[in-house]
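Model: You mentioned two targets. I'll fold them one after the other.
Researcher: Yes, keep them separate.
Model: Target one:
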Amino acid sequence: MVLSVIFYKNLGVSNTDIALYTSWLYLPWVVKPLWSPVVDLLGTKRAWVVLLQGTVGLAFAALALVIPASAFFLLTLTMFWLMAFASATHDIAADGFYLLALPEKSQAAYVGIRSVFYRAAMIAGQGGLVLVAGLLSARTGDPRRAWMVVFGMLAMGFIGLCFWHRFVLPRPESDGPAERGISLFTGFLTTFKSFFARPGIALALGFLLTFRLGESQAIKLVTPFLLDPGAKGGLGLTTAQVGLAYGTIGVLSLTVGGIVGGFAISRMGLKRWLWPMTVAVHVPNLAFVYLAAFRPSGLATVATAIAIEQFGYGFGFTAYIMFMVMIAEGTHKTAHYAIATGFMALGMMLPGMASGWIQERLGYFHFFIWVCCATVPSIVITAFLRINPAFGRREAA
């Protein structure tokens, strides 16, 4: 999802097309609740995790091979789509595996640690691999060849980890079909019915759909903003500089924010931190308004602004994760968590599709002001949420 934006920007695709077509890649996460009961009712989460990691690795290999083709845009999007479906299904299994492999009292405390490894992958990808692509492009003058190397590296990494995890992942005793002795169709209907029958589900879905309304638009245009020259309102950074400032320093700040957020909730609960974390996610968007308004030339200034914004987002996003964990509690926690993340992805996909078109008509400065305005609906909905004061606290769990 992240590398596709930078990849297409380097290959000269317009902001409108980048935002529209890469936003469609969220669709597998939107519709994955439709097949999440299959993962919940058939086989083990561990087996799904290993199989799908191998599938993603093969998709990366195919992606690298089709980049030189004349119809590269269609072919690479097809490979991204295959990868997205495999990754979305992997999310179902991996999230369920997390909930099964840890006791409830440890889940809140380990949200931050879980985020560390997720962000480490983003640093390696959004930071390290973008640096590699930028340096190879500068050395060879051929961005296509540079990205072939990057995606080839990812293919080897995923296939290697697939074999590694085949042997080292733990085997929880509870890892198996959610319910035995029932038909798949009956289990499917029961899973969905129990989720939408939860008290206050309409308000909860409103929160899931709007919490990332601003981010869903900004995330598609931050990288183009950093790469575009000053004549187009951008900062004119190189691909390697973006990899360092946004993909490394920014993601490190995001990771630290996630660790602090997980620790805070484990100490005092989700209810206590919901409002502060909501503010922490939304207010730092002003950093991009500042960058677009003054367009500083120093990389240190840009990296500092990005670090502040990313720390706030990492800290506040912990509340969103724990909110999804809360509404997924029950017998079908794997499938229910997948349904919740499906609504989260829908809230990312639809606004993101239009974000490139909006930016090209408003310019970067007014676009980032619009992003700040788009955070208001989630702030309003947060005021009406009802959270169990004990939820998320380590000692309460």
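Model: Target two:
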Amino acid sequence: MDGDQAKKSARSNWTEARTWYGRLPYIYLAIFLCAIYIFSAHQAEKKVREIQQLQSQLTELKWEYTAVSSDWMYSSTRSQIADRVAPMNLRWSSEPPIIIDARKRNKQ
């Protein structure tokens, strides 16, 4: 009979309101920690998505830079410049350019 009473008293300990009120701060702490964990996980996922989006934008910008750079290099070749200025009747000169030295003019 002592065993039955011990089981009964142990069971009644778990069902008593005082026992639950005594454990309530620990339950609140566990709930609070779970909420912090969930919030942290959401923030981490948000940052990962943002980083992936920025990486894809960076890749696109690198492609665009490479395309613009190659176009610029091609359009700055001598033959391309000659083709663009041909309608203005401009040609490459066979003479070297004349250098004007302003210091020599001031001394005279």
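Researcher: Noted. Anything on target two?
Model: The two ends are 131 Å apart (CA to CA).
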